[in-house]
């Protein structure tokens, strides 16, 4: 099932119904909260019902990936069928959206294989198996020029079998997108990047705003870690 956070990353409030609750973990029939995955942290925020407004401290898939679990800061006595109000911590999520889209731009600027990536509200990083050296200042200038120029970001859904025909769509060497859902979510940055991604993104790369590359570090023989920060 396509969840609201996959369809509209800008939705910050919604209602949902409790499916199950156990040990401060709440499962809903649909959710705005992004579950940790693909290098992007799980969302935090608040869920309210019966006059209680409870903090969501993390959102994660269950171990078998069959459910999205909202980790609550305290115990509640909510039961299946109860209506709840969801409220995202938008400040943090929006930074994740800007950062995550920025990492896709790095995938455009650097054609070498991607070995890892991690999105954070303060700092993000992308790792590449570099065949040629890169200049930090030059990369930062290229990145900011792209952002200033702008490009639309859109989502498409393809049959999962596309990966058998076009395995090159996946940029990450070690991490393959999860299979079994039948369809694959593709994120397109118009004219710049197109790859499977379950993450939340801004609508236009201009929204990322100015970025900084504080460091590029060696992590292994060829592997380089590029750290990125939002200026504002
Ligand atoms: Zn992504």
Task: Assign the CATH superfamily of the largest domain.
Answer: Threonyl-trna Synthetase, Chain A, domain 2
Series of H and E elements: HEEEEEEHEEHEHEEEE
Helix content: 10-25%
Strand elements, count: 13
The chain-level mean pLDDT equals 94
Bound molecules: zinc ion
Task: Identify the strand order in the major beta sheet.
Answer: 1-2-5-4-3-6
Instruction: Give the distance, in angstroms, between the N- and C-terminal Cα atoms.
Output: 35 Å
Summarize the biggest pleated sheet.
6 strands, antiparallel, barrel
For the record, the CATH class of the largest domain is: Alpha Beta
Multimeric status of the protein: single chain
Instruction: Output the CATH topology of the largest domain.
Output: Threonyl-tRNA Synthetase, Chain A, domain 2
Indicate the CATH architecture of the largest domain: 2-Layer Sandwich
Stretches with pLDDT under 50, minimum 5 residues = none
Shape: globular
Quickly count the domains: 2
Q: Which percent range describes the beta-strand content?
A: 35-45%
